[in-house]
Amino acid sequence: METRKPIEALSAEVIKELERLNYAYNTVCGLRASFKRICAFAQDRNELYFSENLGKEYLKEKYSCTTDYYLESFPPKAKQAIRSVRLLGDYQLHGVVIRRIKKRKGYVKPPQFEAVLTAYEKECKSNEYSLRGMRTRLQRLFFFVDYLSLRRVADVSAITPEIISDYVISIYPNHEKSIGSILTTLRVFLRFLYLNEYIKQDLSLTVPKQNKYYYPPVPSTWEPDEVRRMLDAIDRGSPLGKRDYAILLLVAKLGIRAGDIKALKLSDLNWTSKTITITQQKTKVEVAYPILHDVGWALIDYLQHARPLCDTPYLFVRLNAPFEAFGENANLHNIITKYTRLAGIAIPRGKRHGLHSLRHSLASTLLEQGASLAVISEILGHVDSKSTSVYLHADMKGLRACALDPEEVLLDD
């Protein structure tokens, strides 16, 4: 495949490919105009070919932004230009229009890969991956499969180290943590192909490793006053408020994961022993939570005055017909977002504020109160205490107490 073409010819080929892929007429027209502006810029600089450096200079001079759009904010008017630069760069390098990551429902497997993908899904299920883990793993894999399909790869046996290298180059605009996850998924899939004799060479060894060590981010936490304000903002006189209040209490007071809350069944509540016993979806470990006083009354209030009469065994259900459990992909994020806004709590940019952040807050509060990592790990349902150790970074009061006084050190000397 020729890698260097005059920029006008390259632009024309990209437009032709977009039309073949049935991109919308208005989209193609907009990109054609954008390509012409890039070609004119190249002509002014006596550049015959497109290059990444040319694209960077174009964006910097015309739009005052960079190609690091995944790390930095950029002017809204630059979106089309950035997309055009990426299209030209991708097509010059790979000879295909790479579809950027987006969520899709009902993924249709390319016919040439359907059998092997189905076999891999069965392998994942036999390894007892969680539903959430399966979904994200396969979603990452489908991007690689789409790339193979665009490269006209007819069978997995035709995958080469060169194709893998080109694909890895194509994912570099992602966040470094996402890149690590994508590479891991790719490595596991290629290993599966080799062990099951779909390919003769273990191509998983050709997948590069990141040169950076991964340091877990400091968890986002809430101040105790913010949690109280959010809970006070709930209208507990309405059925919706009763349900949402009970859900938020289970997370804030017991640290139960959102997935486990959705999976809670009426039979999991033992009112005699005042416990909630579940098998965690993520760890497959059975855990018993105490039904605290306020949690218990919130659950009773919901069951008696808010939960619709229905046949489903699940504790929390939708309040609009049909009355059934939450959907598989529901993350309940809208619940905490709604009451955060009602409470007037400002969320700093970049801070995570989903239900999981309430678990972080519970861990940090327990740590400040002197609880050991082993106890916190048991409460949160962590299999490995290393998962809990990241909360040490969030306990600023404890860190300050451990800090050395330079004057004392000098006096001791």
UniProtKB/TrEMBL annotation:
Residues 217-404 form the Tyr recombinase domain. Gene3D superfamilies: 1.10.150.130, Intergrase catalytic core. InterPro entries: CB, DNA_brk_join_enz, Integrase-like_cat_sf, Integrase_catalytic, Integrase_recombinase_N, Tyrosine_recombinase_XerCD. GO terms for molecular function: DNA binding. Keywords: DNA recombination, DNA-binding. GO terms for biological process: DNA integration; DNA recombination. Residues 111-194 form the Core-binding (CB) domain. It holds the Pfam family Phage_integrase. Signal peptide: none annotated. This is Tyrosine-type recombinase/integrase.
